[in-house]
Amino acid sequence: MLLYGWLQKAAKARGGTKSLIYRDTYLSWRGLAHRVDRRADEFAAAGVRPGDLVGLMLGNVPDFIILSLALSRLKAAPLPLDPTASSRELEMLMAKVPLRGLITRPRGGEGAQATASSTQAPAPSAPAPAPTATPAGKGSRRRAVPESRRRLQGTLLSCSIFGVDARPVPKKAEDQTCAVLVTADSAGDPKPVERTAANLLAEAQHLAQALELTEEDRALLTVPLFHSFGFDVGMAACFFAGATIYLEDEIAANRIAKLVRDQKITLLPGTLTLFAEMGRLPASRPLSHKPIRFVSLGGGLTGAALESFREKYGVRPMSCFHTTETGTVSLDARGQNGDSVGKSLEGVELRVADPKTDKPLAAGKLGALWVKSDAISPLKLGTSPGSSKSAPSGTRDAAGYFRTGDLASLDRSGRLVLAGREDDLVRLDGKRVALGEVEGCIEAFPKVSAAQAQVITDPLGGPMVVARVVMKDKMSVDPEAIIDHCARNLAPYKVPRRIEICDAL
User: Fold this and answer.
1) What are the phi and psi torsion angles at 201 (to 5°)?
2) What sign does the CA torsion over 100, 106, 112, 115 have?
């Protein structure tokens, strides 16, 4: 009930003041609490129990926040899902995660519904069929049949309820699951990351302290709430501080800049691409309100781009480093060095070690990054944290340090500088992409012999995936056909923007 507890505290203290604004509508703290209670009662009537996991396949809309808080009241946990996720990704995730429910948008989640059910939902008068599963064995995947499917009252959202074994609720409140967030493992497959109440509380405290958040702040959330960075800033830090939330699902630099100015936004978490586009807008006068924090995920602006942004808005973006497993690791609070992602937050310990021997390295030396903090997930769901003298990427060592899989260095001032990955995972506007997964998808196309994917940064389009492809026996094919093939099998952000046909790689 951690998230719901923060809502109750804010509703009691701030009552009729604005809590959540989306386009031309808003909810007060008291009104938000009322809607959350109604949804919680509806979930309980549908059979959602403490410990259950419910998938939310929604974008940046008020329902995402309302439903997440309602599940928190029931001691259940939201599992945010990308509405554009492919059927393959959803199948793999549902094989790992025992979903009790799945909420989808109108005309959205068809792949999810097809994955979750091989038959139509039963009529209300018919008895609900028992959940079925394929026989356990190598390569088999569980395919659940919904017990029921209904529409949430007053909305167009569909709610499917599945029959799963009840998950035990830990006796200690700090060990209860508050959310399950999804990232990608080294092969590009979905990786569920469980966040306990202790993890989420530590993350909220780290962010609130580092960004000096208060109830007077106004946060504009353009980063997706189903992404761990958006969830941590939007659901954890903002509700912990009692800050007002502005939701935005239209990522256009000119619109974002106008909202920041008109609504006197004090916190804008975003990506390097967004801030670069904002810096290229026609000249405008610096912002007059204070404080203003532009938080750039994964790195900041540098050189002429940084100076242009500062002249237009009067502030510099703060670069930060955040992962789904660790939460927020570091922040360049002054925005002075876009080449680094700042110093570690209070309560977060960093170590850079030799990738093979795990021996700590001196300042400036490149090595594997290890992180230790209370915000790190225990990784109990669908994977194992492990414990060994030399932990592989994505696990802990005996001292409790988590190996992120990133290659990095620490300068003499303690600032963290990222320099790629130990595996072929890359970050694309905060999302993980396994280049091997993209290459495998392209090579599954009948006429392709081999493929090589990489990420490039276009001056106008930002970071994107491109691929070089060798055809079988010099066959001819329209590159658009390969892109269409990828679009049917990969999430949109993983699909190559450009295909180059070549004789050899």
Assistant:
1) -65, -45
2) positive
Tell me the DSSP string of 193-257: EEEEHHHHHHHHHHHHHHHT--TT-EEEE-S-TTSHHHHIIIIIIHHHHT-EEEE-----HHHHH
Quick one: how far is CA 387 from the chain centroid?
Answer: 26
The pLDDT of residue 74 is 96
DSSP category for residue 165: P
Q: How far apart, in whole angstroms, are the C-alpha atoms of residue 298 and residue 293?
A: 15
Q: How many residues does the chain have?
A: 505
Would you say residue 160 has pLDDT above 50? yes
3-state secondary structure 278-309: HHCCCCCCCCCCCCCEEEEECCCCCHHHHHHH
Alpha-carbon gap, residue 358 to 401, rounded angstroms: 11
| 39 and 64 Cβ atoms separated by less than 8 Å | no
Taking the C-alpha atoms of residue 268 and residue 344, their distance in angstroms, rounded to an integer, is: 20
Quick one: which H or E segment has residue 56?
strand 53-57
Categorize the per-residue pLDDT at 153 as very low, low, confident or very high, splitting at 50, 70 and 90: very high
> How far, in Å, CA of 210 to CA of 489, rounded?
40
User: Number of C-alpha atoms within 13 angstroms, CB side, residue 51?
Assistant: 12
For 120-142, how does the pLDDT look when each residue is reduced to its tens digit (9 = 90+)? 333 333 333 333 433 333 333 44
Cα 271 to Cα 217: distance, rounded to the nearest angstrom:
20
Cα–Cα distances in Å, from 69 out to 35, 41, 121, 177, 407?
Answer: 10, 12, 27, 13, 36
Whole-structure pTM value: 0.85
pLDDT of residue 118: 40
Of 163, 161, 160, the C-alpha closest to 131 is 163
Would you say residue 114 has pLDDT above 60?
no
